[in-house]
Design a protein that fits this description.
The structure is a single chain. The chain is α/β, with parallel strands linked by helices. It folds into 2 domains: 209 residues, Rossmann fold, CATH 3.40.50.300; 152 residues, 3-Layer(aba) Sandwich (Rossmann fold). It has 16 helices and 15 strands. It has an 8-stranded mixed beta sheet with strand order 10-11-9-12-13-8-14-15. Strands 3-4-2-5-6-1-7 form a 7-stranded parallel beta sheet, sandwiched between helices. Bound molecules: adenosine monophosphate. The site of adenosine monophosphate has 17 residues, from helix 3.
Length: 467
């Protein structure tokens, strides 16, 4: 079969100022979803795109959106010159923040304005930006309706509506809110729907609100990126924490995302790693929104090395160049394995995923292999000694070659002999102590105004539906 030549950004008919922002980001070629969606959006088509986080979907809708809004770009200070022309709806605050950061990034060289509104913070703090006028508004559905009720904004000039992660919006019960919002928008508009899955419900939504949509599909579900090296380490549960600490030290990686099955295990593991001198924090459903954002920000900024997450807390999590994902415990749902390891090896970058599997998890591993239609080699890491406990708050793995700081090395053998049991960590037998609820000073406000130096594309979602 004839191989198609990959399309370049230059061939996409985007303005040089938009291309400049793309170049600033270091993107060289469009991802498959971008190559497919951008020409269709520019042609004015409604699209129904099946794309997961990590495929480059945000740029797939933002770049053509900016291009279409360019004729309306204005440096006038008058709010009347900046009506909302594009509305992007996202299910969670984290995703909304993330998308708006991308809009800001890609519009760096064009005079188009954007802002984001989401629940959980004082609505008054969001009013001034709306009053000044913005062409692109990113919003969670509930808070958008609050602003409509408070007459802080008008939606009668919206030309383009984007529904991002539409499946999650429906999962989270936003259908009634969506219907109310759609009723407020001009009938004559372009609608772009992005969803990780095409359920019957999504198809119904598209039928109702999209006009003759072009269906765009990229990477199949239940496939794992070829760029991710996946390893299975057979270990005993009691040794997992020592092996993980060892792994982090010996590799000297700057960022590691670690998954546990339960909130309790996530909290405990983060604390145990901290006791080892490895800076870590956990995100899970028992943490407040502020705590989760704070942990995520610390991880993005490199202030902590390890972020321990549960599956729900990590939905949609996206961090640029994440080198290593560790499954401290395998997920009970095989599909979650695909989601987890999709956090590395994004947009063609190489990544590594290591799963620490004990005997009781063998069944889950078989389920994963069945889903992926492949079998993994089982490896056995040998831990020569339990890593030393340093009670200092300094991260033991900050140095570029952290292995030289640690007397412990781990090697991997491919035999089937049971590994020697290392000392069990009594810490894990202690009762769970919830994290302290230290109040954090307005992290959302800082997030709203913050423009990251680098597009640290990190977000998490599926965490709550509070407005
Ligand atoms: P998304 O699927 O929109 O969450 O994007 C996933 C990641 O891919 C983000 O970190 C983007 O910065 C990055 N990205 C988007 N488009 C490209 C591209 N064409 N080349 C390289 N990275 C990209």
């Amino acid at each position: 079969m004839e191989e198609l030549k990959p399309i370049t950004f230059a061939e996409l008919n985007l303005d040089p100022q938009i291309l400049r922002a793309v170049e600033d980001e270091g993107y060289t070629v469009p991802t498959p979803i971008q190559a497919k969606a951008i020409p269709l959006v520019l042609a004015g088509r409604d699209i129904m795109a099946m794309a997961q986080t990590g495929t480059g979907k945000t740029a797939a809708f933002t770049l053509p959106l900016l291009q279409m809004l360019l004729p309306h770009a204005s440096s006038s200070a008058s709010p009347a010159r900046h009506p909302i022309r594009a509305l992007i709806l996202a299910p969670t605050r984290e995703l909304a923040i993330q998308v708006e950061e991308s809009v800001e990034t890609y519009s760096a060289h064009v005079p188009l304005r954007s802002t984001v509104v989401f629940g959980g913070i004082d609505i008054k703090t969001q009013k001034p930006a709306l009053m000044k006028g913005v062409e692109v508004l990113v919003a969670t559905p509930g808070r958008l309706l609050d602003h409509v009720e408070s007459r802080n904004l008008q939606l009668n000039q919206v030309q383009v509506l984007i529904l991002d992660e539409a499946d999650r919006m429906l999962d989270m019960g936003f259908m009634p809110d969506l219907k109310r919002i759609l009723a407020l928008l001009p009938k004559q508009r372009q609608t772009l729907l992005f969803s990780a899955t095409f359920s019957e419900e999504i198809k119904k939504l598209a039928q109702e609100f999209l006009k003759n949509p072009e269906v765009v599909e990229v990477a199949r579900r239940n496939t794992t990126a070829e760029t991710v090296k996946q390893s299975i380490y057979l270990v005993e549960q009691a040794n997992k924490h020592a092996i993980l600490a060892d792994l982090i030290r010996s590799r000297g990686v700057a960022q590691v995302l670690v998954f546990t099955r339960t909130k309790i295990a996530a909290g405990r593991l983060a604390r145990a790693l901290e006791r080892e001198g490895i800076l870590a924090d956990a995100i899970h459903g028992d943490k407040s929104q502020q705590e989760r954002l704070k942990a995520l920000d610390a991880f993005k900024e490199g202030k902590i090395t390890v972020l321990v997450a549960t599956d729900v807390a990590a939905r949609g999590l996206d961090i640029d160049d994440l080198p290593l994902v560790v499954n401290y415990e395998l997920p009970s749902n095989a599909e979650d394995y695909v989601h987890r390891i999709g956090r590395t090896g994004r947009a063609g970058a190489s990544g590594e995923a290591i799963s620490l599997v004990d005997g009781a998890e063998e069944k889950m591993l078989l389920e994963i292999e069945k889903l992926l239609k492949r079998s993994f080699e089982r490896e056995r890491p040998a831990v020569s000694s339990t890593p030393p406990r340093t009670h200092s708050s300094r991260p033991a793995n900050r140095a570029p070659h952290a292995s030289s700081h640690s007397p412990t090395t781990h090697s991997v053998t491919h035999t089937n002999r049971a590994s020697k049991k290392t000392a069990k960590d009594d810490w894990f037998d202690k009762p769970y102590e919830p994290a302290s609820n230290t109040p954090v000073v307005e992290p959302q406000a800082s997030l709203m105004s913050r423009k990251p130096n680098k597009p640290v594309a990190a977000l998490l979602g599926g965490l709550g539906i509070k407005r």
